[in-house]
Write a structure and sequence with these properties.
- The protein has 289 residues and is of the alpha+beta class.
- It contains six helices and ten strands, in the order H-H-H-E-E-E-E-E-E-E-E-E-E-H-H-H.
- A hairpin with a 2-residue loop joins strand 1 and strand 2.
- The termini are far apart.
- The N terminus is likely disordered.
- The protein binds copper (II) ion.
- Copper (II) ion binds next to loops.
Length: 289
């Protein structure tokens, strides 16, 4: 034992220094690999402004987690190697990590700092430009562009077992498919007619619960043309797995032609629909009232 708080072992090797140096080398190599090689491939991709933000957040989280994981792996690998049994029946033990007040102090400082930073980072990012999640009927994280009149409102209606889409800005027509114009701010108003569903437009970075009697608002800002998958992300009954659509982000001209065509096609059905509303109640109490 040395007098330097266990930094030099009985064999004279500076184990802590070795572990730290190995950890730094591994981190300097792997963090750029994560940021520049793995990060761009992380979900959900760059299909919308919100999706890009989520991919950036996933990259930040993975880049932060990498040195933490490497610290564990390097430490484990080092002790397995340095304190292996060289001579039969002679075990050279390393300095004890348990009860080491210096390790305990830095453990608390480092873990507390990381957790508090992540709590702050997550809060700030959740409040940034809509973030793609459902925010309930009164969103607090409204994209700055939403103040203008150019927000496209699309109502997403979940029911066992399909999504339909209602367009209050286009005569209240209800469609079976979802097409959106490129480079546009879209406000999804998500609700359900029966049980709890979840509207998950993966490549758009949007996921919002569809609850009966609730209007759940989620924003997305589309980029260029895109094919995206819509799936129900809440187990909603026997045909839950069948509840999906393929959606498209298209040019503004193509969107205008598509929605005009839908209005004509579904005109007879539109006449029989209840007026557009934030929620629809097949609810006996509401009917009785
Ligand atoms: Cu469902």
């Amino acid at each position: 034992m040395s007098a330097h708080g266990g930094t030099v072992n009985m064999d004279g090797t500076r184990h802590w220094r070795n572990v730290v140096v190995l950890w730094l080398i591994a981190s300097v190599i792997m963090v750029p690999v994560v940021i520049f090689l793995i990060g761009p491939g992380l979900p959900p991709g760059n299909g919308s402004v919100e999706a890009s933000g989520q991919t950036a957040d996933n990259t930040v989280l993975l880049a932060l987690a990498t040195p933490v994981a490497l610290g564990v792996l390097v430490y484990l690998g080092y002790v397995l190697f340095a304190f292996r049994e060289r001579t039969p029946d002679v075990v050279l033990d390393g300095p004890a990590i348990r009860g080491n007040s210096s390790v305990q102090f830095w453990w608390l400082i480092v873990t507390t700092t990381i957790v508090l930073f992540l709590a702050g980072y997550g809060t700030v990012r959740l409040l940034a430009d809509g973030s793609g999640g459902g925010q309930g009927p009164n969103p607090i994280a409204v994209p700055t562009a939403a103040a203008g009149s150019r927000t496209l409102v699309v109502q997403v209606i979940g029911q066992q077992w399909q999504f339909t889409y209602r367009w209050p800005g286009y005569g209240g027509v209800q469609t079976r498919d979802l097409e959106l114009p490129e480079n546009s701010l879209v406000q999804f108003n998500v609700t359900s007619l029966d049980v709890i569903h979840s509207f998950w437009a993966y490549e758009l970075g949007v996921k919002a619960d569809a609850n009966p009697g609730v209007n759940n608002v989620a924003y997305v800002t589309t980029k260029g043309p895109l094919t995206f998958q819509v799936r129900c992300a809440e187990l909603c009954g026997v045909w839950h797995g069948y509840m999906f659509n393929t959606g498209y982000v298209v040019s503004k001209a193509r969107f205008a032609a598509w929605i005009a065509q839908q209005r004509v096609r579904f005109a007879p059905a539109t006449k029989t629909l209840p007026p557009y509303s934030k929620t629809y109640f097949p609810n006996p109490l509401r009917r009785a009232g």
